[in-house]
Amino acid sequence: MTQSAGVVNNAGIHFTKTETEYNMKSIRFLLLTITTMFIVIAALMIVLGISVYSHYHGLSFFYESGSVGYIMTPSSLSVFIGLALLLVSIFGFFGSLKLSTCMVNVYACILMAVFIIKLVVVILAFTMDSGRILHYINVPVWGYNDPEIQQEMDILQSALGCCGSNSFMDYMGMEFTNNQTTVQATLVIDGELVTLTLPEVCCFSSAAGQCDKVAGIGCKDALVNALVQNSTVIGVLGVSVMFINLLGIIFALLLARCIRKLKSARALITWKIKEKVIMEREAEDAYNKEAGQVYIDHQASSTA
């Protein structure tokens, strides 16, 4: 074990800063840096989730209406994970500052659990099946005359450049009200010219109520394509965060090991100090006892 600068106390014990102490300081600095990065990432996830929810929460209507029960939206999932990561990071940050072996070990265990969850999410993100997602998406064209559904569908069709659920053919034969803005589109369907009445948002360009170019893709396919593309981005970001997470686990375990070694060394030094103090007191008591004794020489006996 490498020794450097030393200090001598009143009891004559020579203290030295060991290699373990220097390693512990370096590891604690790295762990605090990584934990600070976790706190920043968690805060960004919360802000991003709230921002996405405020702008696009209406689109969740289309995949929630196609499923049984409630499915957590990506924005709410981002906020939930961000809050959990923030609490865990703050716990690890204070554990590192206070050099608590228990807190640092618990922090490492929680990071391991988070690492496993992220690994599952990344695998699901890279293996997302578009056919399976279609079963969870429902674009209710049949309810377009409902003002609330119409508003949500117009936002969806305008944002993704799509028309209808499967295609613009979903609007064939639908009766629109006078309050709805529509256009006429003349299209070739099965070799015949057919004139359809479509919502204005389904048309890329129109003039005098006539649509020149209709969105050819259905909104279900457009939603699936957007989810698959975003899942790839999420997977790449997840791998990057997992690497930082793995470093956090390694440094947390190393720091806990250094803390245990340092506390053991300090306990040994304390025990040596107490032992030396006890020995010095015993020696002092023995000296005082010996100094306090009076010796009388025996006189030589004489015979008459």
UniProtKB/TrEMBL annotation:
Taxonomic superkingdom: Eukaryota
Pfam families: Tetraspanin (PF00335)
Topology versus the membrane: Multi-pass membrane protein
Membrane spanning stretches: 29-56, 76-97, 104-126, 233-256
Compartments in which it is found: Membrane
Alphabetic keyword roster: Membrane, Transmembrane, Transmembrane helix
Main location: membrane
One cellular-component annotation, GO: plasma membrane
PANTHER family: TETRASPANIN (PTHR19282:SF477)
Name of the protein described by the UniProt record: Uncharacterized protein
Organism, scientific name: Heliothis virescens (Tobacco budworm moth)
Source organism phylogeny: Eukaryota, Metazoa, Ecdysozoa, Arthropoda, Hexapoda
